[in-house]
Design goal:
Shape: elongated
CATH topology: Rossmann fold
Number of helices: 10
Number of strands: 12
Order of helices and strands: EEEEHEHEEHEEHEHHEHHEHH
CATH superfamily: P-loop containing nucleotide triphosphate hydrolases
Bound molecules: guanosine-5'-triphosphate, magnesium ion
CATH class: Alpha Beta
Helix content: 25-40%
Oligomer: single chain
Distance between the termini: 27 Å
Strand content: 15-25%
Length: 340
């Protein structure tokens, strides 16, 4: 893999167009250029193989005006593109795991939505995204402009699934961190929970730094549904936590989504309080998952709940239980750490 010059700070330098450096320097010697790997292989089937240029990359945006150019595409990132990004700059892979309509897409897109309203949120500054259009599409229906009285998120079909990308700059550091948030259909997780599919069917599972299993708060609020909702989420957590392909350094969380629906119903809240300890300590006894209560998009158009705490957890370096380099990549927890 060689490198190509994509930009040069020196006015008039022909290097980005394929010409010679205006100062006669090599790419390695020149301090003024931005370079990217030149890639010409076929798209790989999974994250562990060779990498190519991001699919659909069409625009270059300068996320925060401070020199972190990113390409943006109309779609989510396919696993190969996600891996390319990791290979280039490291990053944090976040798996949002939950069955149909548990709130995965809303959580990811409202996290991005915080930075649309205000470029700084919870100690981070927005520094770009390769999936701006995919984020915007996901937010569209929830906006007043969509003329709906109740905000909704469209179901995620397999054809639109992939990774959403957020590049964020921690207020206390100079280097941005790339977050890749999965947006997969709930059906995939139902099939894994039911044992119809192996967890390996989940793209990127073995590379996930953070794995969040969602419990649908709206179902906790329904007496006829709450027991089943907990049982299903617990089983999914178990299937993922016990899977040999999951890195020992991966951090787990359990998120009760749509917390607005739980918080307004004392019986629903009491039910979760009563069962949460068992839920959190039963599967991952040595290191129980972190619990979050999140309303990414409360029905009453009130402000979101819990997104700041969730982002703080995402930004925490992975725990170092028996840390080993990830196979097929130079990404290592210590490298991830050094970026924060
Ligand atoms: N009341 C309330 N509703 C929410 C909240 N978050 C999501 N929802 C609604 O829950 C429904 C399902 O949310 P999605 O984000 O589409 O769920 P999903 O897990 O991505 O679903 P699939 O793509 O089908 O797997 C949508 O109608 C959302 O508007 C929340 O915080 N509060
Ligand atoms: Mg979805």
């Amino acid at each position: 893999m060689s490198t190509v010059v994509v930009s040069c700070e020196k006015a008039g330098c022909p290097a980005p167009e394929g010409g010679a450096c205006i100062d006669g320097l090599t790419v390695e010697e020149c301090p003024n250029v931005q370079v990217e790997p030149e890639l010409d292989e076929e798209f790989p089937e999974d994250l562990s193989e060779e990498q190519t240029e991001p699919q659909g990359a069409d625009t270059t945006v300068d996320g925060d005006g401070e020199g972190f150019p990113v390409h943006t595409s109309e779609t989510t990132l396919a696993p190969a593109d996600a891996q390319l990004l990791l290979t280039r700059s490291g990053g944090c892979v976040v798996l949002l795991a939950g069955e149909e309509e548990t709130g995965k897409t809303t959580l990811a897109s409202e996290l991005y939505g915080r930075f649309v309203e205000d470029r700084g949120f919870a100690g981070w500054v927005f520094a770009g995204s390769q999936t701006l259009i995919a984020f915007e599409e996901r937010l569209h229906d929830s906006r007043l402009a969509s003329q709906r009285s109740v905000p909704v998120t469209r179901r995620t079909p397999y054809s639109a699934s992939g990774f959403l990308h957020l590049r964020l700059l921690p207020a206390s550091a100079s280097a941005p961190v790339d977050f890749l948030l999965s947006d997969f259909p709930g059906e995939l997780f139902r099939r894994v929970r039911e044992g119809q599919d192996d967890p390996d069917a989940i793209d990127g599972l073995s590379r996930s730094d953070k794995i969040a299993v969602l419990v649908d708060g709206a179902r906790l609020a329904l007496p006829s549904e709450r027991e089943m909702a907990l049982t299903q989420s617990r089983r999914l957590l178990q299937r993922l936590a016990e899977h040999s392909g999951v890195e020992s350094t991966a951090d787990f969380a359990v998120i009760v989504t749509k917390w607005d629906e739980v918080a307004c119903d004392p019986r629903a809240e009491a039910y979760w309080e009563q069962h949460r300890d068992q839920f959190l300590h039963e599967v991952l006894k040595e290191k129980p998952p972190t619990e979050f209560r999140i309303a990414a998009r409360p029905a009453a158009h009130s402000p979101p709940i819990g997104l700041d705490a969730f982002l703080e957890w995402l930004g925490r370096p992975p725990s170092m239980r028996g840390a080993t380099p990830l196979p097929g990549t130079d990404r290592h927890p210590s490298r991830w750490l050094s970026r924060i």
